[in-house]
Amino acid sequence: MARAIHLDNVTKEFRTGSTTHVAVDDVSLEIPEGSFATFVGPSGCGKTTTLRMIAGLETPTSGTIRFGDTDVTDLPPQRRNVAMVFQSIALYPHMSVRENIGYGLKIHGVDRADRNERIEEAAETLRITDQLDKMPAELSGGQQQRVALGGAFVQDPDVLLLDEPMSDLDAKLKAELRVEVQRLHQEMDATVVYVTHDQTEAMTMSDYVVLLEDGHLAQFDPPMTLFDRPSSSYVASFIGTPATNTLACTVERTSDAPDAAGTSGTDGECVVVGHGFRLPVGDALSAHVGERVTLGIRPQYIHPDGGAYSLDVEVEVVEPLGTEAVIHGRTAEGDRLDVVTDSHAVERFAPGETFRAGFDRTDVFVFGPDGETLLFGADLVTDGQPSSPEQ
């Protein structure tokens, strides 16, 4: 039976001699029962350590972990009803696929008939029924990982933990297994916690994404919330491919700095200024007038010859990706800027050329000096301000 997972102020420290390393720092969150949550982040951010604490393989230095209403902080793994699949495919080479899948059931005393029924069910779900009598050495990498998943599936766990199970597979197998894991989750009455460094896996598979940064919780939300409403420049840069463009700008008032037409506009209105454009934001950033800020624009929302606001971009590389292309370039001020556009960009743009790229203000983020998001451009559509420059 699936159970919600609660982490309350969980911290994990490792001590080496006189040195203390904080791997997970005061993380609190609730993963709803039956959901699929993915921990993602760069190497060393604390995602695997957190997974191991949920599994019972590590004990928190402080804080508590609950499954539903049950405090499992100090319970050993065998009393948590969890199953875990590791990055390394740990199969017994001298056992058949059938024996590998059913081994956990066997050591728990499940009778042969029930064991075989559950093995057959798992094999059918994972589409490896015809592999049951083979040995692991006869299987491909993807088939071996399916066997490992089957061994976890048959245990009927409350919580299924997956620690980078696809990191050693090629791109084609990863794509296939992403679908298999999601189908497996739909058939299980379990809460799934998945760890990966691949943000594509996190975005495509999850109900919730837990993004960590140096042991801290950066953001915990559904995937598209992280994409559309990142809480910081770190989240915006990590989630999404290519990474979010970031442009150095300044917040000014129109009354303090006349616009290109020589008029001051509405007294007191704030504008984000930089790279040849002036972006009106009403009074949303009035507390930050005179400050340096960072404007974020996703490459998918900036277009050649389009958008209400524009800037010059010098092309460095054009990367064809089949139905689309990515233009990698730099602004006149030297900031990196990527543009995702159609495949014709390969013929239209050449390295060294300069073109005009445009965007709409509803598609931007504004980050403060500390990286925290100050403004979502999408919110400006309701503030009575025009979405494009006044003519």
TrEMBL record:
Membrane topology: Peripheral membrane protein
SMART domains assigned to the protein according to its UniProt record, in alphabetical order: AAA
Catalytic activity: D-xylose(out) + ATP + H2O = D-xylose(in) + ADP + phosphate + H(+); L-arabinose(out) + ATP + H2O = L-arabinose(in) + ADP + phosphate + H(+)
Domain of life: Archaea
Subcellular location: Cell membrane
Predominant subcellular localization, coarse grouping: membrane
Signal peptide: none
Keyword annotations: ATP-binding, Cell membrane, Membrane, Nucleotide-binding, Translocase, Transport
Family as reported in the entry's similarity comment: Belongs to the ABC transporter superfamily. Carbohydrate uptake transporter-1 (CUT1) (TC 3.A.1.1) family.
Protein name, as recorded: ABC-type D-xylose/L-arabinose transporter
Species this protein is from: Salinigranum rubrum
